[in-house]
Amino acid sequence: MITLENVTVKYPGAADPAIDNLSLSFQQGEFIGVLGRSGAGKSTFIRTINALQEVSSGEIFVDDYSVHSLSDEDKRRLRTKAGMIFQHFHLIPRMTVLQNVLTGRFGQKKWYENLLLILGGGKERREECH
After folding, report:
1. Which residues does 111 contact at the CB level (< 8 Å), separation at least 6?
2. SS3 state at 3
3. What is d(CA 106, CA 116) in angstroms, rounded to the nearest whole number?
4. pLDDT tens-digit profile of 76-103?
5. How many Cβ atoms sit within 10 Å of the Cβ of residue 127?
6. How far apart are CA 56 and CA 44, in angstroms?
7. Selection from 58, 64, 70 nearest residue 19 by Cα
8. Which string of DSSP letters, residue by residue, matches 76-105?
């Protein structure tokens, strides 16, 4: 479950907050979409839930844990459990789609397993690394 309580995010020098006093919650298994005009705070909202953006005030809870109080390592673990598509994909053009996706799992694999995946190891090697 994800809960936002009175969350505000204000960027330095900005006249208005990107997110202003937002409170809502999502239950496990819910699939949501975020819609809005350019500059409405959609990306900030997603980045805030995923602990990539600090809040100016308010609190975010994921499974009853305060995201603000998590260590950097625990924040990284949190991100591995969330699916997120950025506006700009930041893909590496010379890599296949599979290789690009698997690079997001580098922190959870041994260095040689990652190397095999990047070099395009066969199906058996990819299965060994999962």
Report:
1. none
2. strand
3. 12
4. 888 877 766 666 666 777 877 777 777 7
5. 9
6. 12
7. 58
8. HHHHHTS----SS----TTS-HHHHHHHTT
pLDDT of amino acid 124 = 46
In angstroms, the Cα distances linking 83 to 17, 119, 128 are: 25, 25, 23
Compute the half-sphere exposure of residue 3: CA atoms within 13 Å on the CB side of its CA.
8
Asked whether the beta carbons of 60 and 52 are under 8 A apart, the reply is: no
Of residues 17 and 31, which shows the higher confidence score?
Answer: 17
Hey, which bits of the chain come out as E strands? 2-9, 19-26, 57-62, 65-66
Dist CA 38 CA 43 (whole Å): 10
Which residue, chain included where needed, has tokens 């900030």? Answer: 44
SS3 23: strand
Q: What is the dihedral of CA 110, 111, 117, 123, to 10 degrees?
A: -40
pLDDT score of 109 more than 50: yes
